[in-house]
Amino acid sequence: MPDFIHVLLGLALGYVISSYVESFMHEYVSDAHPKAVRAWSRAPWLFRPLINTHFSHHTIHHVRTFRNDHITQFRSEEEKKKLTEELVQRGKHGLTIIRGAFATRLHGEGAFVFVSPLVIFFPLFYFTLKPIGFLAGCVTLLLPPFMSHFVHPYLHRPFEEGQRTAPRWLAWFLGTRYGRAIYRNHFLHHRYGGVSNFNLVLGADYVRGRTRVLTPKDLEVMANIGMPLPEDAAVPPAEALRG
Q: What is the span of the domain harbouring residue 54?
């Protein structure tokens, strides 16, 4: 098999696997159902990484921040100060959350939990693909932690602000059709309480039936906060802003 086929195969396999793992882990760990979290809490010595990941992502990122809207992390300095004090009291894990910009960047145990299911595929790729295909597969297998750490913070800023402030390579990526689709997918994830649209590595949500269709009201809200709209949006930005 030619080398370029191994490269394409590695990239494709890594992408599909990483998208599925991200969608699944996001749904069943980061935004897990309260029943699951209560079950983990019965054996914290065993499930501590899952408990901490859920706390940092769902409790802090979904519930305790961005309460006003998708692009406003704190409603006031007092709110930020109060949460900071609470997290400091939590100890090492709380400090990790603070260093991760209050769970907008992947850090600590959350990174371990997200990466650990992907680790089993590295030896599989190593023994089934040529070295060049293995390296290509590694690139796409590592997309979930990469997207969570580098891309995710900009998904909570107006699009134009991201274009001005992101590194040049990242601003280019965010401006692509794929990057704009990530903005919309993540907006819907937050707007409906973290029960759908889990992917930053797009794909598996659609196959698993975990997506929502944008409504006219969604488009209006997106336009008002500066999210990129689909090219065929039913509600034009200017009309939405007047609404």
A: 3-157
